[in-house]
Amino acid sequence: MELNETLPGCRLVSAFSQNKDELILEFNDGRKSMFMKASLAPELTCLSFPESFARARKNSVDLFSPLLLTKVSAVETIAQDRSLIIRFDDDRALWFKMHGNRSNILLLDKQRPVDLFRKQLTEDLTHEPTAFARTIDWSEPCFRRNEGNWKKYYVTLNAPVWNYLEQKGWSQANVDQKWKLFRHVLELLQSPGFFIHEDASTRELEFSLLPASHEAMRFEKPASAVTAFYQQAIVRLAFNRARKSALHQHNASVSNAQAQLDRITARLKEITHDHHFQQWGDLVMANLHRMDAGLSRVTLPSFDDPDREVEIPLKKELSPQRNAEVFYRKAKNRQIEIQKLSEQRRQVEQRIVQLSLIGQELERATNLQQINRLTETQHTKDDKAKRALPFHEFVIDGYTVWVGRNAAANDQMLAEFTAKEDLWLHARDVAGSHVIIKHKAGQAFPKPVLERAAQLAAHYSKRKTDSLCPVSYTPRKFVRKRKGDPPGLVVVEKERVILVEPRG
């Protein structure tokens, strides 16, 4: 073993860690230093041997101090186990137990663990190296006895070995042919090469002792091979993490955009074919001669079907003609809302197309620079999409709720996006965001929705730290802006008050 040729006689001059999953060892033979890095991260459990290592001035902790300046006597492995032991002259040793998410480094004194690198794995203090040694029978009779159960019996053969056998026709071979293939692999493992390649199907980086059927990097020495593997794997790991995070954020953006499109489409469907305000205005104007002042409602024959009557609510303090004018104004406002919603829908549909293109590029990305560029592009577009609207949007039990972003945005939201049937809320007597609950035709505002929207109004106000906050609410038609008033200031009529706990 290569380490048994280089480490014996060297002294351990430093052992330290700069993060919870990494140990650095420095050995010196009196002429030069040799470094060993143990990475115990579950996603990358690996030893490597960098030519040099610059220790950080901060966030660095010395470990295994009893071994400092002690000479290495031998390096050995545990039979059929992913373990390495570095023995020192004073009958102490470091045991590198490379077992995935249970990996650890143990200080041994006379074969018994006395200290741990990952101290939370206290069970390791009860282990001894000899208990992990395995005996595996590699003979032909044993091979045949374990027919169909080979992967479970030959537990030390990892995925690259079985992949290599598959490439050689393992699945189609009979038992005799499989034994020949298996014996061939065992012979190769007796004098292995050291290869780094990418799995064609999973795109995962693999370290193998067997040649690959496709392009691979080959090394003559195991230490240089695992060092190169670690350096490439850590870059690949960072790339996979970044892409996974970027795809997660991208999918969230797509879901949010699709949900917004669904809400806009549902609202458009609800109001596009609803012409009752226009019809009521026409019916009232056509029947002025039949109506007296002071009526609170009137029943008139429909234009479409004279046998069907239409009941129309009126404001008794207004004349029939003025009631008709109110209906026409509401119909006009409805058309304005349809136009604005249609434009919003167009913008959101365009945004979904852009997100789809970004998603395709993320799937094809091959390096961190591409991921970072696409992520920055998506964040910029997300920010622009958010800034395009003067409010934050929430959905509470199926009701759309808007919270103004600031004083100027409050005015813009009220002037350009609200309808008179919407419900307006605001924390009483303090500065804060205007909150709007969008009206649903023919439905009253449910009390739970009102209370939750009031909590938002309290949270987005100067009373957000109070235990209880009074919140005013009234239909949007009773909220008006006077000319010359500062941003956010409005006049409110016919308000009611609800007391709630501020909650974002």
General description of the model:
- The protein is 38% helix and 24% strand.
- With 504 residues, it is of the alpha+beta class.
- The chain has four domains: 2-132, Roll (ibrinogen binding protein from staphylococcus aureus fold), CATH 2.30.310.10; 140-220, no CATH class; 246-387, Helix Hairpins, CATH 1.10.287; 391-500, no CATH class.
- The strands form six sheets. It has a six-stranded antiparallel β-sheet.
- The mean pLDDT is 89.
Fraction of residues in β-strands: 15-25%
The CA-CA distance between the termini, in Å, is 62 Å
CATH fold descriptor of the largest domain = Helix Hairpins
Shape: elongated
Q: Quick gist of this model?
A:
By secondary structure, the chain is an alpha+beta fold.
